[in-house]
Amino acid sequence: MGTTNLAVTGTWLEGIEERTYWVPPLHLLAQAGWYKIAGAGLTQMRAMSIAFGAIAVAMVYLIGRRLLCGRFAALLAAALLAIDVRWIVSGSTGRMDMMSASLGLTGVALYLLLRERPLALAVAAANSAIAASCLTHPCGVLHAAAFGVLFAALDRGRLSWRTLLAAVAPYIVALCLWGSYIARDPEAFVRQFGGNVSGFGAEAGKPERFSGLRNPMIALKAELVKRYYSQFGEWGDSKLAGALQVFTLGLYAAALGMALMSGRLRRTRHGRALVAAAAGVFVILWLFDASKTAAYLPHVLPWLILLGAYGFRRLAGGQAALACLLLAGVVGAQAVAHAANFRKNTLESETRAVARFLSANVQPGERVVGGAEFGFVAPGPLQFIDDSRMGFLTGVRPGWIVLSRWYGVWQASAGRRDPAFGRYAKALLEQDSREVFRAGSARVFRLEPTAAKATEVR
Asked: Which of 352, 365, 421 minimizes the C-alpha distance to 398?
C-alpha cells in the first residue's frame, strides 16, 4: 500500500512509497475495493463519500428518535444536516472523515436500537462499527467517547464482564489487523503516524495538535471563531451568502441554547445523555485539535444539530407560522450558499483549467511539481509530483511548478522556519522561472532551461 506521487525525501513521510502509515488504513482499502467495482476517478471517489454521508443522515434520525427527541426534532435534524452546505462539501471531497463519521454514528445508532435485547450483542455491534471508524480516521475516538457517555447514562447499572469484553474485543481485533501491517516496518509507522500528529498543518504555521491542552481558553476562542463562525461566513465569496450563513449560525446557536435550558430535556435520562454526548464530542475537539479544520465538522455537527433541532420548536414559542418562517430562512440561506459555491466552481475554473493548460504544453519527460489534486484530474499521460519544497530536498529540479494557495501558505511558513529553503524558493520562482498561466489562486511557472544550474539545490 504505497503512495508514489509524493516527494518525501528527508521528511517525516519517508517510506510512504513502499508502505502508507500516516493515516489508518480502512478508507484507503475501501477506496481500492470501490475503484475495482466502479473504476477510478473523481466522480467515483466522491460517490463513495456521498453514500456514507447519506447513511450518516439516516443514523442521525435514528439516534434522535431513540434518545426521545421526538419524531419532529429527529426528522428536522436529519433534514437540516442533509441540506447543510458544510455537510455536503465535506461529503463530496473524498476525505476519510465522512466515512469515519458514518461508521461512528452507525455504531451509536446500533447500540440505541439493540440495547433492549441482550446488552452484550448491542455493545459488540456498536463497537465493531466504531472500531472501524477509528481504523478510518483517528476522529473515530469521538464516537467511541459518545458511546461511552451514552452507555454510562443509560446502562451503567447493567455493566458486566461479558459486556465489557464485548466492548473491548472489536478494538483488539482492529489493532491486531492493523498491527500485522505495522509490524512490517514499525520505524516507518512511528515516523509517519507520529509526524502526522501535527503534520502539514503545523508545517503551514498552525498550532501544534494538542496545544489547546496548555491554553484551553485560547483554544476555545479559536474553536468558536475558526471551526464555526468562519466556516458559516465564508461561502462562495459572496457577502449575501456569508451574511445568510451567519444568520443560520445564530439561529442554530439560539436553538441550541433553548435546548440546554429546557427543563424537560434535563429531567429525562435520555435527554441528559444526549446533552452529555454532544458536550463530550465538542470538548474533545476543542481541547485536542488545535488545527481547527472544518474537515472534522462531520464528527460534531450531527450532535449539535440534534440538540438544536430539539430546541427549535421552543425557540419559535410553539408558533407554527414563526417556525415555518425561520425554517424558510435556513433553507434560503443554504440555497444561496450552494448557488454561490456552484458559480465559483474552483474544480472547473482552477484545477481542471491548470491541468488542461499543462497537458497542452508540457513535453514528454518534463517534471511537473504541484498539488496531487491537479494530477488527479489531469488528462492523458501528464504526471504530477506533489513536492511543496520544489526539489529542495530531492535535488531533482522541476520543469514546471504549479503554485496553489496551499503551496503558497506552506512555503511562506517553511521559509520562516528554514531560511535556506526560503532563499531557494525565492530564487526559483523569481529568478529562474516565469509565470505563464494563472487560474484563480493557482499560478503556473515555467523554469527557464538556460537557468538550469542557477539555483543551488541542497
From this structure: 365
Q: pLDDT tens across 298-354, in order? A: 999 999 999 999 988 888 877 888 888 989 999 999 998 888 888 888 889 899 999
| Residue 406 cell numbers, joined | 496551499
- For residues 5-24, b (16+ Cβ closer than 10 Å) or e, as one string? ebbbeebbbebbeebbbbbb
Average pLDDT of span 354-364: 91
Q: Which of 380, 69, 10 is nearest to 255 (CA)?
A: 69
Question: 3-class SS at 165?
Answer: helix
341, 355 contact by CB (below 8 A): no
For residue 381, pLDDT over 70 is answered with yes
DSSP state, residue 138: T
Q: Enumerate the domain spans of the chain.
A: 26-344, 346-451
User: Where does 254-363 show beta strands of DSSP type E?
Assistant: none
pLDDT tops 80 at residue 205:
no
Q: Which residue do the cell numbers 458536550 mark?
A: 279
**Residue 238 is placed in which grid cell?**
459572496
Mean pLDDT calculated for residue range 56-69: 93
Q: Which residue has the cell 459488540?
A: 124
User: Which of the two residues, 378 and 311, has the higher pLDDT score?
Assistant: 311
Exposure string of 152-164, with b = 16+ CB inside 10 Å and e = fewer, is ebbbeeeeeeebe
Give the pLDDT confidence of 156-178 residue by residue, as tens digits: 999 999 999 999 999 999 999 99
Between CA 120 and CA 55 the distance in angstroms is 24
Name the residue among 161, 130, 292 with its Cα closest to residue 222: 292
Residue 444, all three cell numbers: 503556473
Sign (positive/negative) of CA torsion 428, 429, 431, 437? positive
Strand order in the sheet with 384-385: 384-385, 368-369, 400-403, 442-447, 433-439
CA atoms within 13 A on the CB side of 416: 9
Task: Please name the helix (run of DSSP H) or strand (run of DSSP E) that holds residue 442, with its range, or none.
Answer: strand 442-447
